[in-house]
type I protein arginine methyltransferase (Pleodorina starrii), 1289 residues
Amino acid sequence: MSRGDCHSSRSVGGDSGADKADGDGGGCVEVAAAASPLPSPPSSPPARRTDAEDGAEAAAASFRPHFPSLSQTIGAHSAVESEGGGAAPSKESPPEAPAAAAAAEAEAAAAGPSSESQRAALAARIACLEARWREAVSYLRSGDPLSAAAALTLLMRTCRTSRLTHRDLPTARSNLAAALLAAGGLAEEALAEAEAVVAELEARPPGLLDAPARRALVRGHLARGQALSALGRHAAAVASLERGLALEPSHTRMRSEMDAAGRALLRQLLAGCYSETLALPAPEPRPLALSYNVSGAVSPAAAAAGAQPDATALQLRWEELLPARLLTPRAAEVDDRTRDTYNFVTIETDVRMPKRCLRVLHDSARLAAVREAVQAAVEAARRGGGSGGGGEGDEDERDVRVLLLGSCAGLMGLVALRAGAVHVTCVERWLYLASAAGEVLAGAGVPPDRYRVSYRRPTELRLREDVPICCNVVVATDLLNDGLLTSGLLPAVRHVAAAGLLTRDAVVVPAAATVWMQAAQLAAPPPRETSGLDLQAMDRLRWWPSHSLGGPMAEGAYLPLSQPKVAWHFDVLDCPDSTEARTLDLELEVAGRFNAVVWWYDIRLYGDIRLVTHQPLAPRSAPQGAGDGMTSSNDEEEGDDEEEAHNESCWRGDGNAGRGDGGTALAADEPGQWAMVVVGGGGGERPAGRSSPDEPARLQSLRAAVHWLPGPIRVAAGDVLPLTVCHNTVAMRFEVLTADYQWLVTRDPSLPPAMWAGLADTARLAAYRRAIERAVRRLRAAGRPVVALDVGCGGGALALAAAAAGADSVVAAEVHPGLVAAARRCAAENGLGHKVAVIPGDVGELVRGRDLPYTGANLIILDLFDAGLLGHRALATLECVKRRLAGSGPPAAEPEEAAPHPPPPQQQQQQPDAEVEAAGRGGADAEEGGAPGGRVEVVPAAARVWAVGLELLTRRVAGEDMSALNKYRWDDKYETVRLQDLPYRQLTAPVPVFDFNFTQPPADDLGGGRGGAVYPSTALVEAQVVAKGVLNAVAFWYDLKLDEHSDEPPLSNAPPGLASTAEEALAAAAAAAAGGANRRYGRRYSRRCQALQYLDCALPVALPGGGGDSDTSGGGGGGRTVVLHAQRTTAGIRFGLRPGVGVPVPRPPFKVEWGGGVSIENPHVQRARYCQLLVSEWLQRLPRIGGGGGGATTSIAADLAPLWRHCGSLALDPVALAEVTHRLTLLERLYGKAGSGGGGAGIGADDGRAVAAAVAAAEGSVGVEEGGEGRVGLVRPEDVSLGLPAVWF
């Protein structure tokens, strides 16, 4: 060894035949012959000493006296050397060079300080170190880890005293940690050495980690995890092993240790051993402090299970949960830290709000109540009544001037004018809602002097400039959202009152609101509902940045743990203007994991007209085992066939949850209970969601909000927790002051939110598991080892199912770093980590022989399907996997079995000639392109896409023409919806569109060569018309045939309540016409989601003569059909009519391009492209500036944090802000720098311009895939998540 770095080509810890990286004992001992280092010149400065060396010296000097064997061994070595003797005896006597080297060094020191003597002394010290290393090697090879540990400890000590270093000292130090572990009883000393290795190597830049250093870091993580497990600190051990697996996912020893540590951690969690304490003491005048307590007390149960005091205590002030000083919009626009982000979020919200308004227009229960409240308020103001309503006013009638803080696109303005108001001022925060309001009011023929539309934030309104005259009625119902305060309701009303915009006796709608809350458990299904698989590790990621979800929760999605309790009461006109807090005694009635607060509000609009945003479930005793999850029951109505019942089962807290007898209302006359009443639900047609006249109407645009606790708290029936509730007029928080959390949740907004609904779909998981078991049995019967590949594993449920079914090895590929860690933890907690290797990154970058066996995978599992089947580029990904990673060709089959589905009878020009020819061959060329005599199983085996023509238009709402909003429906991509939530009219019978055979061999070229056939890309189908209307939309879904050799019904996401045949559709249309209903909602609950595509052209259709409706277009008898054209694009499937058929539909302003260059481009388009330019510029810099967390230098979450803390005061929409946050953080996680400590996935990190170009192409491309199905290209955000789901959990 020498001063500074040594340039020897052989390392101190190099590989040799004695390498035991995956063996027994220490597990990471690496030995080799030492290299002959070159000494540095004597004039060179002293060699640097690293912190790791100091740590190693401290560790060597801190051996405990209760380990006499090691200390005596070290003493014996030192005594022998001091006497000039040889080394300690061993099974293989090491050379006696240390004594001779010491003697030579003494002679050189006595000779004087000449340069020759200095070189001689240095050479003597180097020779001593080399001899020490050879001595340690001999001990390791002879199986004496204790003597090897003593020799390595003296080696480290000598390096320090001699002021020498070497680039491979971390390798030697990792060998020391492994030797200490192998010696037994020295876990603390081994932990110190392993932590020194990890600290030194992780401090190096990733580019300076060569292969030996990388191996040493992996082994350091392994030794650290083993030491922590030996000390009983299994949580820290799992974290260390996860970091090691991030560096080397296929490390066998690491995965086995992860299995053991994960299961031990799960046992301690069940015993209540590990807990994270969040302490919120009483307010004190001191700064925010974070302390990590490692010396806390251990409960008796934890002590019995061998727990260690490893809890984390966070001490916070409750005042700092919410900001006391709020950021104003003007300040956000001029501040360099928030200006671009605030403008970006504002524009993105602008383009989303018209569709949100359309949902409100579909909510007949809400509109009916608000309309009645506005009419009553106008009448009271005209008679001089107060905001309480119901009183008699002056005899002289007054002029009513109404100020609308959000007019529902002008609808409430028309309601107020028709109720007797002389003037209305419609204030719209969002640009396109203001434009729509002006169109609606002008289209209704209202004189311009009776209304004004102001595009302003409500907190910036000024008299005369924005509001022409003081108003005596103010309506702010459009500022209501799921979180009540988060859209700025209270600051807006307070501002208009303080700015002189209201008279003293003004009527305010809404008048007051009461906030209710309920303790809840939202958790993964228990193992008995997931085929014995424990997916509890996924709950460590269960979080969302917004209290408002933006969609409905699935019925029975949460288990109520307490009775509903009043949290706050707000008087809107006399609202608070500062932060307030109170403490509630929360009585738990059901045992479980308390990890969320579900809260809603009962709002009094005017008088006795009220709305309730949620109908809670009464807590019931959970079934056995439900404390760790939910139970399952069918969510379809009685009388459904077996197939639908099988596909639609869902889990919930009790067997009756979500049904009519679920106990949703509490009796008003019971002590301490309450009742919910909705007045003004409207007469005539019953609002959607109301199953009986006595049941409160279910609102479709206002729902319960969810506040996530820092982690789950294990509670028992009868426990009482002090819950702190605080608000700052624009947000609310619910926190437990002192509690033991089982773990702290990872708050990652980049996780795809749709995965929670997929995790809850236990019927889908069970169907996949059965298909995987059958595929494994067939491969076993063929005498082949089963190597499974799970493409896009997510949380790893299907990979675990394959391992549990008997697969020899499973490779699970996942691109999201957070899901990679969760999948590894799930595998460890199920004891399957030794079989399942979770590989981070793009599946297209996997390499045979490195990430999976060289022979490839013979079982491919794919579940990348969105609501429209192909939105995540599933076909291109599958073809890439089959071409590069499949171990053999698909199984040969008889001609009649080549296509799992029969060809659609009404389908024309669906397949190219090459594919028809390949299907006729019946797989004769199946063996080509794969291993001879083998077969590849693909789950699922096939899919069929179905479509139906719909009319989905807004015409008259509450008697007013609101058709001006229809142009905001159109988009160039389809959206995910739950069709039962929309007032659609079915115009055609469902027709099959595409058949995809996933088991066919991959194509050799783009035209479908002899190796296989391409998938169908276009289709023309004829759909039979069953009702009169305007065909402007197509809804489509798919059936998945999981196993071509089984008769099990396919999985389907078909919408319930939709007529499946032409006869049923005709009968339903006739019944609807007879009943006077012109819209159709789903007749039952379902969590299935479908894809909805708005057509470029609308086509009026009618029944032939003699049908249920008059035939205005002529035509004789027989069925009339409409031809739909379907095309497979990069974004999925797109539908349209034949060229020249139909009338072009109007489009939103930001989608209409004028052309002719930027100088004359549509300003609305330029405004939308401004956001794209900001994202593109940021993506080009992202590979250089980092991102994604995990030690990164920057994070987009930090830029968005001020907007989240001041969302209400900035007049932002929390749902749109959450969607923008999700997309930006997902971009950062995908394309940010990758590192051993986490962070981004590092995809495309070499070229930021390529990343920006790929993302821009994904946003604007609707053409046919370029490059063929086998070329996927860069992973895009749309391949991981398509935004907010249609139904949550």
